[in-house]
């Protein structure tokens, strides 16, 4: 089945979307409109290095991003670090002024799930107690050391909604590259197999299985939550049901702002 991949491009002049032909249901979003800011700073850093006196910090006069500003001391020896362009490198990095250790800062990996009921008529959402407080989102969080992305998604659903997900039914559905916050978000589509303890977790004030028609579209936490839910309904679930011999009827409803959202999904053989 030929489906559509939705690509979101976020750059200095705004956000645009385009649809590309693709042969799977995987939604990939890459914020590729940004240039390599560190590379853009490299010439200025070299000029600052040549003009500064002995012991001067060549990056002190540059407007660096927080992830470079927030590292002040070396974890190896405790000496101060300076942001420099290491030899044979193209990216600015904190470098220890004592032992020369280069600090490599990498994006955070967020893992989560679009968890649906056994009959796929409802989806799990949780209400946040941390900013943005009171908004509904998918169960998700930062990946821990020594766990797989799927294990992390199952753990987050357990922690935030006290449910058990079916690992066997899980399929990779969304990969979001959020350059502005240095995150990679990975979401699985899976089924909830135990809701006996469904309820709020340590970082949530509520957890519910929403019928597709009852999703609080106007009160979702992030654009990626809406994109994931829409992709699940419009593309991923229909493609999966076709593989299993099921048919779907999708109903769209027009909102006050003129946009359309999926509000009802029925399935039949």
Automatic annotation (TrEMBL):
Q: What is the lineage of its organism?
A: Eukaryota, Rhodophyta, Bangiophyceae, Porphyridiales, Porphyridiaceae
Pfam families under this entry? Answer: NUDIX, Zn_ribbon_Nudix
| Superkingdom to which the source organism belongs | Eukaryota
Nudix hydrolase domain ranges (all copies): 106-233
Task: Output this protein's name.
Answer: Nudix hydrolase 23, chloroplastic
One GO MF annotation is: hydrolase activity
Task: Please name the InterPro entries in this protein's record.
Answer: NUDIX_hydrolase-like_dom_sf, NUDIX_hydrolase_CS, NUDIX_hydrolase_dom, Nudix_N
Q: Does the keyword Hydrolase apply?
A: yes
Keyword annotations for this protein? Hydrolase
What range does the record give for the signal peptide? none
